[in-house]
Amino acid sequence: MTDWRHHLASDPHVHGGQMCAKGTRVTVKVILDCLEDGASRDEILRSHPELRPAHIDAALEYAADVNHTETLKSFGAAH
Length: 79
Prior knowledge:
Low-confidence stretches: none
Mean pLDDT: 91
Radius of gyration: 14 Å
Strand order of the largest sheet: 1-2
């Protein structure tokens, strides 16, 4: 399991603070959108040569963490 914090960062001066792959201007949203559209890891890495495989893993882990947190908030609000 990848600790996304090692590979992703948010900077208010880059894309308005959206979470990006560290050392790049590629947002997590772009990575996830590519995966959702059916792009393979190799295709994403070819399209965005500044990315490393760990960035893709980190984007997925970050999305899972956000989803988990939102689910817990929703569950807590419902009870």
